[in-house]
Write a structure and sequence with these properties.
5-stranded mixed β-barrel; 8-stranded mixed sheet; 16 helices; alpha+beta; 639 residues; OB fold (Dihydrolipoamide Acetyltransferase, E2P); Gyrase A, domain 2; disordered N terminus; 24 strands
């Protein structure tokens, strides 16, 4: 920025440090001489006087530049050159604002600083957007200039809350004798449910590290080593499709303890979370948290992370239609070759039928279809008590009467139902539908309204059957233990669909904030799990040989859980996407718009790693950071 008279620079004065922050001064500081540093948030020229709001992360202070003050003339002249986002140092006297000029919206609104000396420490170009919480700006522009976006008070507040949260967690766990132990970032690729980010090794050409999806095996090894109480604020990496609450790199509060069961572990975690809500939000949380079995959660709410703050619970109407001639119900309730059958579930929206037009119902049907449902059946109860529905003609009088009696239906009620041979499809679609209805009808409290609904969901299934591959898969990671009463069934491969895991999730208002389990500590049970996953003994040894060997040297019963730092912070801050509680997040395509990464590396770097990039001709040439597909192969090898 050019000006006729060069601004006074920081080398022109002996001191450019501050005596106070911009959120600190109050009436108690009247008549004190202070020095402040910060960014110009606003500048107002009132002719003889110039006013500026000076900002740092602690708040705002109004500075007045009055040429009539001792030393004020030179400061006033310099103030004529300052603009938004200039960084300044100023010295002055704290004085009370004139009568009627106080600003109750500012914590420093009673006072102002009459400037007697001013130094422009750094000039600034005009920012691409206003540094203001009330200005709507495209998120891509904010992420491109994230360092400017982070000057906004709301984002700074979020990062401060995140810091406080982790400080409280560390203090709590330290008081409970947990040790903070760091584990490697460069580690071995292991199958944990998502793709690994891989890192080539220059010193060992053709081999790769993987960035950890979690410190799972490492924290279990720490239990074997005798570190009976461990925690870590752990960085985790997963190469998977992104969404609002998912990033390729994220942070966990990772916790593990030996010689425990749920009865001993849950109170420690509940106390930690209650402390967060008390110290950050000032809310008293009732302990202990209620518990709900997985089967109950799915049956009542269609979700393993139910929001229990409102009704609209799922109703099982399968029995009513066991002998139905309605083809949709017949297909759902016919026993399959594995002796299983599907389900018919319904939600009753009491007295609200008139609020839903045919288009509204079609939209809800489309939403249910995204979860695999082939259709959504709707029924409206007429003033006469008759059922109005496209399927009503297929129901017998006995079925209609039983439906009305079981659901307690009254005129004006709306019934929405899904039937499918796969119970999971019914639960997933109805669970999502329930949340959509709750939001539409204003039944879900907003942030800060009502009491937080904490809940443990327990006794998850250990394995799930995949009809397409005709085999069982682990519901959680491959180190989750069956509940002890199911050990022998699991080893024998019997009663598989009824085996429950010693797994648990902590849920808040329909959001899973942490999950964990007791771990497998017996080699025979771990071998059975790897066999279930289709790993031969040789493959298990190749991927987990170090871990399997460690299990043979005296492994204590142990378990733990991990909390998502970003999810916890977002809930405490009352924001939606977790990007708002991260300093430098990425887009949903995994791009950092600020640094323009991922990006290409030089041919020399690839050569040094003995790597060649083989582009897929059918996908076209990739541009920098485009995310186009490419495969990695050792240099000199043919594709």
């Amino acid at each position: 920025m050019n000006s006729a008279t060069p601004p006074k620079t920081s080398t022109s004065v002996k001191r450019t440090v501050r005596s106070n922050t911009c959120g600190e001064l109050r009436a108690a500081n009247l008549d004190q001489e202070v020095t402040l540093c910060g960014w110009i948030a606003k500048r107002r020229d009132h002719g003889g006087l110039v006013f500026a709001d000076l900002r740092d992360r602690y708040g705002l202070t109004q500075i007045v530049f009055d040429p009539a003050l001792p030393g004020g003339l030179e400061a006033h002249e310099t103030a004529s050159r300052i603009r938004g986002e200039f960084v300044i140092w100023c010295k002055g006297i704290v004085r009370k604002r004139p009568e009627g000029m106080t600003n109750s919206k500012m914590i420093t609104g009673e006072v102002e600083v009459a400037c007697t000396d001013l130094v422009i420490l750094s000039e600034a170009k005009t920012p691409p957007f206003a540094i203001d919480d009330d200005v709507e700006v495209a998120e891509t522009l904010r992420l491109k200039h994230r360092y400017l976006d982070l000057r906004r008070p709301s984002l700074q507040k979020n990062l401060i809350i995140r810091h406080r949260m982790l400080s409280i967690v560390r203090n709590h766990l330290d008081q409970q004798n947990f040790l903070e132990v760091e584990t490697p970032i460069l580690y071995k690729s292991t199958p944990e449910g998502a793709r690994d980010f891989i890192v080539p090794s220059r010193l060992n050409p053709g081999t790769f590290y993987a960035l950890p999806q979690s410190p799972q095996t490492l924290k279990q090894l720490l239990m074997i080593s005798g570190m009976d109480r461990y925690y870590q604020i752990a960085r985790c990496f997963r190469d998977e499709d992104l969404r609002a609450d998912r990033q390729p790199e994220f942070t966990q509060i990772d916790i593990e303890q030996s010689f425990l069961d749920e009865e001993g572990f849950f109170p420690l975690m509940e106390a930690m979370v209650a402390k967060l809500w008390k110290e950050i939000l000032g809310q008293e949380i009732q302990l202990p948290f209620p518990r709900m079995a997985y089967k109950e959660a799915m049956t009542r709410f269609g979700s393993d992370k139910p929001d229990v703050r409102f009704g609209l619970e799922l109703q099982d109407i399968s029995e009513i239609f066991e002998a139905s001639t309605f083809q949709v119900f017949q297909n759902a309730l016919t026993t399959n070759a594995r002796g299983r059958k599907g389900a018919v579930r319904a939600i009753v929206v009491a007295g609200q039928a008139e609020k839903f037009s045919r288009k509204d119902l079609d939209d809800l049907q489309s939403q249910a279809g995204t979860y695999g449902a082939k259709g959504l059946l709707w029924m409206k109860i007429q003033p006469t008590g008759e059922i109005q529905s496209p399927a009503a003609k297929f129901f017998s009088d006995a079925e209609k009467a039983a439906l009305i009696a079981q659901l307690g239906l009254k005129p004006g009620d709306l019934v929405l139902a899904v039937a499918d041979a796969r119970e999971k499809v019914v639960h997933d679609s109805m669970g999502a539908l329930r949340l959509a209805l709750g939001a539409r009808l204003g039944m879900i409290p907003k942030h800060g309204e009502g009491k937080p609904a904490f809940l443990w969901v327990v006794n998850f299934p250990l394995v799930e059957y995949d009809d397409r591959e005709n085999r069982f898969f682990a519901t959680h990671h491959p180190f989750t233990s069956p509940r002890p009463q199911f050990f022998q069934d699991f080893i024998n491969g019997t009663n598989m669909e009824n085996i429950e895991a010693s797994a648990y999730d902590m849920v808040l208002n329909g959001v899973e904030i942490g999950g964990g389990s007791l771990r497998i500590y017996r080699p025979d049970v771990q071998a059975a799990m790897f066999k279930l996953l289709g790993l031969s003994p040789a493959e298990a040894k190749d991927k987990f040989g170090y871990f399997l060997e460690a299990l043979q040297y005296g492994t204590p019963p142990h378990g733990g859980m991990a909390f998502g730092v970003e999810r916890l912070a977002a809930l405490l801050c009352g924001v939606g996407p977790i990007r708002d509680v991260m300093a430098f997040p990425k887009t949903q395509r995994g791009h950092c718009l600020m640094s323009e990464s991922p990006s290409h590396v030089s041919p020399d770097q690839l050569s040094e790693l003995e790597i060649a990039v083989i582009r897929q001709p059918s996908l076209g040439a990739a541009s920098s950071g485009s995310g186009a597909a490419a495969s990695l192969a050792p240099a000199g090898d043919e594709a």
